[in-house]
Amino acid sequence: SSKIKSIWLSIVSIAAIIAIVFSLNIYRDNLRMDEAFRTHYTPLEYDPQLMSRGEESPLSLELTEAMDAYQRQDYSAALQKLNTIPNLDENLLIYKAICLIETDQLTQSISLLEELVNHGEATEYYQQANWYLALAYLKTHEGEKANKLIIKGNFNFKELR
To answer: 125: Cβ–Cβ under 8 A, 6 or more apart, which residues?
Structure first.
């Protein structure tokens, strides 16, 4: 009976040590991903030529207001306006994704960025979509997915080495 208790105690102790080491590694990896995100993330600068490329339409006012809010870094207001525009131009989806990151709606941002990346290099903001998708994966601690994009895009993330 005491021998069984001793063996059981040894097994539980070893399991606890393994769990602690595993948890510390995950915590350390998450800290590295958080640091990489903070170091490399800045919202995409607004390209004012996007507005001049579009056609005049009744939605121009909403789009102008959305992009004005984006430029003021009022991402919540910009997102609200962008959400009212049906069939948003593909080139503007990157700005919507940034607004989603800025308002901590990472799941929706990732979906949108994945959609843009899946459209391929024909998309004007393909490289930026890859960049921000990698950053969003870092923010959500999806390191494997982030690393694949970082390697694919040849992005420089020395914090993850």
So the answer is: 44, 91, 93, 94, 116
Question: Is pTM beyond 0.70 here?
Answer: yes
**Distance of alpha carbon 2 from alpha carbon 21, whole angstroms:** 28
Phi and psi at 155, nearest 5°, equal: -80, 150
Q: Under DSSP, is residue 24 helix (H, G, I), strand (E, B) or coil? A: helix
Cα–Cα distance, 117 to 24 (Å, whole number): 33
pLDDT > 70? residue 25: no
Residues whose CB falls within 8 Å of the CB of residue 160, separated by 6 or more in sequence, listed in order: 32, 33, 36, 143, 146, 147, 150
Read out DSSP for 113-142? HHHHHHT-TTSTTHHHHHHHHHHHHHHTT-
Residue 28 DSSP class: H
